[in-house]
């Protein structure tokens, strides 16, 4: 087995995976792969995959495993071919999302002689999820994320960078948040138990502020690397 750094970020919707993922990937020079971002990009570009996935995303359900796993397989392979993942180090945000995806993921990694080093589990309370997601706004142009109370835009509902009106993600509406949390507990949480048994889980308290969470993740991964 090669000594690559392959990490997976798991946490409830609103746990801060997306925010942390970018910084963690920069810090460890990993290629970041976020299934949520790739799916949203496909939805925006109205690709066949995006049109299919939109039905699931808008209701808070998981997109079908075949779609997501084949998409991931292509991204990993093309990153390795193009050598745009230094030392084939990868950080996965939002994938795998259930045991079925995980089984296929492990097969793909094994074929490439790779394996998961650490699963970073960002643990937050349900009321924090609701508070964060109902106040989340995003720029439809650059995808910058704001929080109406804790990280508001400088000018009324406009992106600081693009000056475009911010939007609420379709799946940040209250009924969809509820559904996403249910799906997370039912399908994603069993993955945490699976990886706990393999001693790969680094549990992080996600209720703290983003900078502290980042520090905890970095020191957790550094321990796992030794
Ligand atoms: P996220 O941005 O990771 O919260 O993902 C937003 C939505 O995209 C989810 O609620 C799912 O509908 C879909 N999605 C993201 N990642 C996956 C995945 N690995 N498997 C299935 N659906 C996913």
CATH topology-level fold name:
Rossmann fold
Overall body shape: globular
Low-confidence stretches: none
Helical region count?
A: 8
CATH class: Alpha Beta
N to C succession of SSEs: EHEHHHEHEHEEHEH
Mean model confidence by pLDDT: 93
Secondary-structure arrangement, i.e. CATH architecture: 3-Layer(aba) Sandwich
Major sheet: arrangement of strands: 2-3-1-4-7
Report the β-strand fraction as a percent range: 5-15%
* Biggest pleated sheet: 5 strands, parallel
Can you describe what's shown?
This protein has 226 residues and is of the alpha/beta class. It has one domain: 3-Layer(aba) Sandwich (Rossmann fold), CATH 3.40.50.300. It contains eight helices and seven strands. Strands 2-3-1-4-7 form a five-stranded parallel β-sheet, with helices on both faces. α2 packs across α3. The longest helix is centred in the C-terminal third of the chain and has 24 residues. The mean pLDDT is 93.
Summary of the model, kept short:
The chain has 226 residues and is of the alpha/beta class.
Keywords:
226 residues; alpha/beta; Rossmann fold; 8 helices; 7 strands; binds adenosine monophosphate
Give the helix/strand layout.
Elements: E1 6-11, H1 17-28, E2 31-34, H2 35-44, H3 48-57, H4 65-82, E3 90-93, H5 99-111, E4 118-123, H6 126-134, E5 136-138, E6 145-147, H7 174-197, E7 201-205, H8 210-225
Parallel strand pairs: 1-3, 1-4, 2-3, 4-7
Antiparallel strand pairs: 5-6
Helix pairs in contact: 1-8, 2-3, 4-5, 6-7
This protein binds adenosine monophosphate (AMP).
Adenosine monophosphate is lined by residues 13, 35-36, 39, 56-57, 60-63, 68, 94-95, 97, 101, 171, 180.
